[in-house]
Amino acid sequence: MLVVGAGPAGAELGRCLAKAGVDVCVIDRLPDLRRAAFSSAAMPMAAVEEFGLPAQVVGSRWTSWNLLGPSGQWRAWQQQQPLGVVLDFGALRCWLSEQLQAWGGCLQLGWTALGSESAADGGVITHCRDASGARRSIRSDWLIDASGQQRALIGDGALAPDPMVSGVGLEWLLQVNQQQWLRWQGSLSFVLGSQWVPQGYGWVFPMQPGVLKLGVCRLLDPRRPQPGLQTLQQQLLAQLDLANAEVLDRHGGLMRSRIRRQDCHGRGRLVALGDAVSTGNLLGGEGIRHAMTSARVLASLLQHPQADLTSRYRKALRQQLGWRWTLSGRLARRTWLGLHSPKSDQRLEHWLRALERCSAVELSALLFDYRFERFGWRALPYVLGLGR
């Protein structure tokens, strides 16, 4: 097996296959997996346990939610036990790749996949450029596109009924003083409202003692002008009294997903994985957990591949993600694209007031597990942005 991309999806797939005794090689264009580590990387505790992630990939734990709404009011939900973690994304990629190699898999960094073609014997030939710039060709039984939203091998396709929805984000790592750290530690904090981030949101997450992650993201809307992300980031720094913090790192990225996930999951012996089949969730910009889930679904099928592997994979992944997935995507599109006016801010404030009745655990269930029915089915049209 050849896997293109050593992100959470590709590296997890490689780890699972190598552990099962499958001959697998993972390649990635990055020479260092700690580079380009753009991810807010929040994850619920259940997922940490499910994937067996060690302490070395955890930046911090959090026990509360803090939401700043359009009115300027902070709302907080807290419990004593940890609700989740903020991962060190670079450390996660490195650990997964180390696990892949420990189980006998191969890792090649600095390699770029240029294209592929069917082999005469029924396999796949992938043309690559290695770390030295030389052209290489690799023959494999199966080729996995885990290149993320770039979809380097599988491509975007042309599916008009389910168009691609794109979001762009910017995140800075900040070195802060003790007082600032104490203000933000132990919480996932979000900034919501069109005056803060039109058609998107901002966040402050604790990374490790003395280091915060501050970011902004929004959906792309070609119908209206949008302010630059760096401008929004600077404004947020000033609003949150973090303008004097030292910037340790700047990174950003693009997320693209189809709401109904009608992506091409495979052609012949080429199969797509993770963000390449829209596992990135646009509601909260979450991608790691779902990418790793897709890897486990595909790994079980690749261990005993059958002729209808792609269709079985599509069906199994749809069942694993569940019906709430599409609902959350619709909510994301309505909420973020519609957040550009005082009227939309009023609707958001109404929604935040409704959330005040929730516990911290219930809020996590809503935002991570998409448990919208906790609001009651009569409230669902409003949650979806259909109410007034």
Give an account of the 3D structure:
This protein is α/β, with parallel strands linked by helices and 388 residues long. It has 3 domains: 2-41 and 88-156 and 262-321, 3-Layer(bba) Sandwich (FAD/NAD(P)-binding domain); 58-85 and 162-257, D-Amino Acid Oxidase, Chain A, domain 2, CATH 3.30.9; 330-383, no CATH class. It is built from 11 helices and 19 strands. The strands form 4 sheets. Strands 6-5-14-15-16-13-17 form a 7-stranded mixed sheet. A 6-stranded mixed sheet has the order 8-2-1-12-19-18, covered by helices on one side. A 3-stranded antiparallel sheet has the order 3-7-4. Helix 1 (8-19) packs parallel to helix 3 (89-102), helix 1 (8-19) packs parallel to helix 6 (288-302) and helix 6 (288-302) runs antiparallel to helix 7. Mean pLDDT is 90; it is low at 377-382 and 384-388.
What's a concise summary of this model?
The protein is of the alpha/beta class. The protein contains 11 helices and 19 strands. The chain is about 30% helix and about 30% strand.
